[in-house]
Amino acid sequence: MRSVLAPLPLAALRLDDGLVADLARLGLHRIGDIIGMARAPLARRFGTALMRRLDQALGLEVEPVSPARPPPGFAVRLTLPDPIGLAEDIMAGIDRLLPALGARLAARGHGAWRIRLQLFRADGTVQSLAIGLAQPTADPARLRPLMMLKLAEVDPGFGIDVIRLEAPQTEPVHARQHRGHLDAAEAAAARAGADTAMADLIARLGARIGIEAITRLAPAESHVPEKSALVLPAAWSGPATDWPAPRAPRPALLFRPEPVLAADDRMPPARFRWRRRELVTRAATGPERIAPEWWLDEPDWRSGTRDYWRIEVTSGERLWLYHAHGGAVSGGWFCQGDFG
């Protein structure tokens, strides 16, 4: 053991940085430099911590260790006497596993964020299908519809002889407190308020197109129109309830600025060309002046301050046009939205 520890640096003994620096000033850099030295002078000068760490490394002093507990695992499996391949038979096996998995989750006070279905085929191959949830749950009734949506992706091959369900990602959930008769009305109202319909809808859509593909908007702190909202995953964010009122109406459809062929005048054009169409202005409301964020250098805003106008054309469309004053690049007229 001494020969193994000797070439290691003193920092390997888990000493304080200051103590390692003090030893280095005396030319002591490796464990082998102090193993053969007298213990009493070392302890008097550098303290007992040095000798204790050395004895622990040599196995002369017991060091209690508190191992980290492994995360709880939640998995159930069903071994079949004969391979199956029909969707009804596979779903029947899943129906036998879901209550068992839900019971294990509920017993530990956990809810599943993600469920993995593993189908072991008779030829030794395995097919894995995963579903994500918008809200952790251990209720088999909420998990079963998601499993049914995934059956279309199952390839039984020569038959499936083992079905395994696993919850690889879980989270502790609050247990329900039993209420007395006097609190029955309050408990009923709380249950009605805890509606899971939206979370179930997000989970079902996520089973088809991916849980990360479902998003919702949340307000952002920016006066720039295209940066006034954040795109958040719907499964892991709540609906926004504090949208600030805009200073002026905003279009229903907002897109990247598209050039408009019109006279280079700050007043709304009487006629203009947009998307290969000749349009005639019927009414114009504005302007609303919006300046760029001066602390950022954004390519889309190098044309300078914008004057926004709500333009109604004779064909009935209501567009959001702006005139850029010009800056690092030339200005002009652009269309950025459609009020519908």
Briefly say what this structure is.
The chain has 340 residues and is of the alpha+beta class. The protein is 27% helix and 31% strand.
Overview of the molecule:
The structure is a single chain. A hairpin with a 2-residue loop joins strand 8 and strand 9. This protein folds into 3 domains: 57 residues, no CATH class; 98 residues, 2-Layer Sandwich (Dna Ligase, domain 1); 86 residues. It is 27% helix and 31% strand. The strands form 3 sheets. A 6-stranded antiparallel β-sheet has the order 7-12-11-10-9-8, with no helix packed on it. Strands 1-4-2-3 form a 4-stranded antiparallel β-sheet. Strands 5-6 form a two-stranded antiparallel sheet. It has 340 residues and is of the alpha+beta class. The protein contains 9 helices and 12 strands.
Runs in which pLDDT lies below 50 for 5 or more consecutive residues are none
- How much is the radius of gyration in Å? 34 Å
CATH topology label of the largest domain: Dna Ligase, domain 1
Strand order of the largest sheet: 7-12-11-10-9-8
**Count of helix runs:** 9
Keywords:
single chain; 340 residues; alpha+beta; Dna Ligase, domain 1; six-stranded antiparallel sheet; 9 helices; 27% helix
Task: Summarize the topology.
Layout: H1 2-5, H2 17-25, H3 32-35, H4 39-46, H5 48-58, E1 75-84, H6 87-107, E2 110-121, E3 126-137, H7 140-150, E4 160-172, H8 184-193, H9 197-209, E5 215-219, E6 229-233, E7 253-259, E8 271-274, E9 277-290, E10 306-313, E11 318-324, E12 332-338
